[in-house]
C-alpha cells in the first residue's frame, strides 16, 4: 500500500511539473509577444515624439508669420489692420497727450489780407471789386474771395505764305486743331499727382471746360508721352548731378507690367530724385542702369546684396534692421537683440545731437567704444542662440547674427561718415507715389508705359523738392524750355 501511495505522489508531481512547463512556455510566449508589442510601441512613441516636435515647430513658425507686421518685418503698414485694428492707426508714433491740430508756436498757412494785396499787385491775378450795400457811405470793410475760373480759350493762328508762296508751319501745328500747353500740363499733373486714369482725366477736364475741350483718353496719353520725351535732357542733367554726390539713396518697388512683376527704382538726394524702370532687382537688370555703372560714391539701401557690385561703399538701412531685431526678441525671448536695437537707437540720438551742434564726427575713443559694444552684443547673441528653443527661430537668429557680423561696417557707416543716413527712409518715401499708381491702375500694359511714368515722376517730384512752380515749369517743358537742371 505504501508503494502505491509513493507511485501516486510521483505521478501527481510529474503532472504538476508538466503543467508548470506548459504554463512557463505559455508565459514565455506571452512575455515575448509583450516585448515585441512594447518594442513596437516604443518605436511608435519615438515617431510620435518626432512628429509632435515637428508640429510644434510648424505651429510656432506659423504663429511667427501671423504676428508679422510693419514694426517687425518688411511688410507695409497696410497689412497691420488684422485683428480688428482700425484703419489708419498702424503707425508707431507715441501719443503726446496734446490736442489735435496746430500747436502753440506753429506758423499757420492761412492767407492774410497783406498777402492777398501783394498777389493783386503782382498782376498775376484778375482783380475785380464788388460792393454790397450803399456806396454813399464813406466807411467800408474789405473782404477778399479767392477763386479759380476755368475758361476755355481758343487761339486762331494765321500762317501767311512767304514771297515764294510757301507756308512754313511748325511740326507742333501739323493738325488743324491742337491742344495748348495749359491743357497738356493739367493733364500730366493729374496723371502723376492726382493718380487718375486717362479716361477720368479727360472726363474731368472736359467737365471743367463746359464740355468744350473734347479730350479723349488717347489725347491724355499722348500728352504724357510728349512730356516724357521732352524731359529726357533734363533727366540726364539730374543724373549728372547725382553722379557728383557723395551719398545717394536707392530703393525699388514692384509694379505689374503686362501681368509680370517689374520694378521702379529711384535714386534720391535732398533736392533731386530720379526714377528708372527695371525688369528685376538682379545684377543683370541693374547693370543696364547707366547711373549705377558710372556712380563712384556711397549707396544707401535696404540690404540689396546685388547693389554691392556698384559704387565704392554702402550704408545699410538700420530701420529695417531694428524690425528684424524686434522680431527676433519676440520669437526667441533672447535679450541680445533688444539690447542691440536700443544701442543702435542710442548712438543715432548721440549722432543727431552732434549734428545739431555742427559737429560731424565722433571722437576716436567714442567710436572704439561703440565698435566694442557692437562686437560684445554679437558675441552674446551667439551664446544665446545655442539655447534658442525652436529650430526655425534659432536658424533665423543665426542668419541675422551672421549678417550683422559680415556687414557690420555697412550698418555702422553712419557713425564713421555723418553724410550717410541712419536709414533709407528718404528713398522709401519717394516710392510711395509709385505704390499709389499701382493701386489705382493695377500696373502698366507695356514697359514703355513704366518708363514714361518714371520720367514724368522724376520731373514732378524734383520740382516739388526744389519748391519750383509745378504748372509753370511743366508748361516750359512742353514749350521746349528745360525746367530743371
Task: Explain what you see.
With 485 residues, the chain is an alpha/beta fold. Helix content is 53%, strand content 7%. The protein has 18 helices and 5 strands. It has helices at 2-66, 113-122, 181-192, 198-208, 217-230, 232-243, 283-286, 290-294, 318-332, 336-356, 364-385, 391-406, 408-411, 413-416, 425-430, 432-441, 447-465, 470-478, and strands at residues 247-257, 260-269, 272-278, 298-301, 313-316. Strand 2 and strand 3 form a beta hairpin. Helix 3 (181-192) packs across helix 4 (198-208), helix 5 (217-230) packs across helix 17 and helix 9 (318-332) packs antiparallel against helix 12 (391-406). It is elongated and about 165 Å long. The protein starts with a helix and ends in a 7-residue tail after the last helix. The model has no long low-confidence stretch (mean pLDDT 86).
Topology:
Layout: H1 2-66, H2 113-122, H3 181-192, H4 198-208, H5 217-230, H6 232-243, E1 247-257, E2 260-269, E3 272-278, H7 283-286, H8 290-294, E4 298-301, E5 313-316, H9 318-332, H10 336-356, H11 364-385, H12 391-406, H13 408-411, H14 413-416, H15 425-430, H16 432-441, H17 447-465, H18 470-478
Amino acid at each position: 500500500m505504501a508503494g502505491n501511495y509513493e507511485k501516486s505522489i510521483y505521478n501527481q508531481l510529474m503532472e504538476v511539473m508538466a503543467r508548470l512547463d506548459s504554463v512557463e512556455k505559455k508565459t514565455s510566449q506571452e512575455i515575448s509577444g509583450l516585448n515585441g508589442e512594447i518594442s513596437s510601441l516604443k518605436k511608435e512613441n519615438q515617431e510620435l515624439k518626432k512628429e509632435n516636435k515637428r508640429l510644434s515647430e510648424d505651429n510656432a513658425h506659423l504663429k511667427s508669420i501671423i504676428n508679422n507686421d510693419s514694426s517687425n518685418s518688411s511688410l507695409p503698414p497696410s497689412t497691420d489692420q488684422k485683428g480688428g485694428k482700425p484703419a489708419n492707426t498702424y503707425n508707431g508714433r507715441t501719443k503726446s497727450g496734446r490736442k489735435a491740430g496746430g500747436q502753440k508756436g506753429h506758423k499757420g498757412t492761412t492767407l492774410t489780407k497783406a498777402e492777398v494785396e501783394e498777389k493783386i499787385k503782382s498782376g498775376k491775378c484778375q482783380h475785380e471789386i464788388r460792393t454790397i450795400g450803399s456806396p454813399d457811405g464813406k466807411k467800408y470793410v474789405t473782404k477778399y474771395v479767392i477763386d479759380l475760373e476755368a475758361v476755355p480759350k481758343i487761339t486762331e493762328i494765321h500762317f501767311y505764305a512767304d514771297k515764294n508762296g510757301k507756308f512754313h508751319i511748325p511740326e507742333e501745328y501739323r493738325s488743324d486743331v491742337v491742344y495748348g500747353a495749359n491743357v497738356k500740363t493739367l493733364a500730366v499733373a493729374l496723371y502723376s499727382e492726382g493718380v487718375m486714369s486717362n479716361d477720368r482725366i479727360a472726363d474731368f477736364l472736359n467737365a471743367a471746360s463746359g464740355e468744350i475741350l473734347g479730350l479723349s483718353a488717347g489725347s491724355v496719353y499722348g500728352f504724357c508721352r510728349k512730356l516724357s520725351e521732352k524731359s529726357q535732357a533734363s533727366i540726364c542733367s539730374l543724373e549728372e548731378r547725382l553722379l557728383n554726390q557723395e551719398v545717394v539713396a536707392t530703393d525699388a518697388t514692384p509694379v505689374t507690367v503686362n501681368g509680370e512683376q517689374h520694378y521702379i527704382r529711384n535714386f534720391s538726394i535732398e533736392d533731386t530724385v530720379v526714377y528708372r524702370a527695371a525688369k528685376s532687382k538682379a545684377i543683370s537688370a541693374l547693370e543696364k542702369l547707366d547711373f549705377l555703372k558710372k556712380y563712384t560714391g556711397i549707396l544707401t539701401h535696404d540690404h540689396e546684396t546685388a547693389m554691392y557690385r556698384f559704387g565704392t561703399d554702402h550704408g545699410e538701412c538700420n530701420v529695417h534692421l531694428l524690425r528684424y531685431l524686434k522680431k527676433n526678441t519676440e520669437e526667441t525671448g533672447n535679450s541680445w537683440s533688444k539690447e542691440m536695437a536700443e544701442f543702435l537707437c542710442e548712438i543715432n540720438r548721440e549722432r543727431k545731437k552732434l549734428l545739431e551742434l555742427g559737429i560731424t564726427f565722433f571722437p576716436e575713443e567714442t567710436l572704439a567704444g561703440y565698435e566694442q559694444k557692437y562686437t560684445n552684443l554679437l558675441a552674446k547673441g551667439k551664446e544665446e542662440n545655442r539655447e534658442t528653443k525652436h529650430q526655425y527661430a534659432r536658424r533665423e537668429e543665426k542668419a541675422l547674427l551672421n549678417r550683422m557680423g559680415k556687414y557690420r561696417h555697412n550698418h555702422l557707416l553712419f557713425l564713421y561718415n555723418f553724410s550717410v543716413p541712419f536709414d533709407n527712409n528718404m528713398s522709401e518715401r519717394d516710392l510711395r507715389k509709385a505704390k499709389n499708381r499701382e493701386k489705382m491702375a493695377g500696373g502698366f500694359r507695356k514697359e514703355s508705359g513704366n518708363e514714361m511714368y518714371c520720367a514724368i515722376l522724376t520731373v514732378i517730384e524734383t520740382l516739388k523738392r526744389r519748391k519750383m512752380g509745378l504748372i509753370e515749369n511743366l508748361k516750359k517743358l512742353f514749350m521746349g524750355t528745360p525746367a530743371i537742371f
